[in-house]
Amino acid sequence: MRKKSLKAFKDKVRAKTKRSRGDSLARIIADLNPALRGWFGYFKHATPTLFRNLDRFVRRRLRAVLRKQDKRPGFGRCKADHLRWPNAFFETQGLFTFYTALAQLRHPR
């Protein structure tokens, strides 16, 4: 994976998950999912640790949006935010996760 590709992906996610965007979480996720699916489709043979780190990055950005909607300062990096909005919460909201997609790719049902 080239650093330039990774930077471009993160910049695209940052643009779609601005804290001052003013949309609901469902709309942000619906806007974000096609980019995540397309990026996974192209880079699906990258290392699994990269996918885990990118999943963390996306969820952290979404937690920052939720903090802003609750009128709380900060960027969603504390443990309390992880407990308030765990990873399973984002899966129930319909967020595409790289790690789950990679597991399904390796072990199709």
Write the layout of secondary structure elements.
Blueprint: H1 3-16, H2 25-43, H3 48-69, H4 79-84, H5 87-92, H6 98-106
Order of helices and strands: HHHHHH
User: From the structure provided, what is the oligomeric state, counting identical versus distinct chains?
Assistant: single chain
Q: Would you tell me the structural class of the helices and strands?
A: mainly alpha
Beta-strand percentage range: under 5%
Q: How would you describe the shape?
A: globular
In total, how many beta strands? 0
DSSP helical segment count: 6
How many whole angstroms does the radius of gyration measure? 14 Å
The major β-sheet equals: none
Distance between the termini: 28 Å
The residue-averaged pLDDT reads 91
Q: Any low-confidence stretches, pLDDT <50, length ≥5?
A: none
Helical percentage = 55-70%
Describe this structure in words.
- The chain is an all-alpha fold and 109 residues long.
- The chain has six helices and no strands.
- The protein is globular.
- The model has no long low-confidence stretch (mean pLDDT 91).
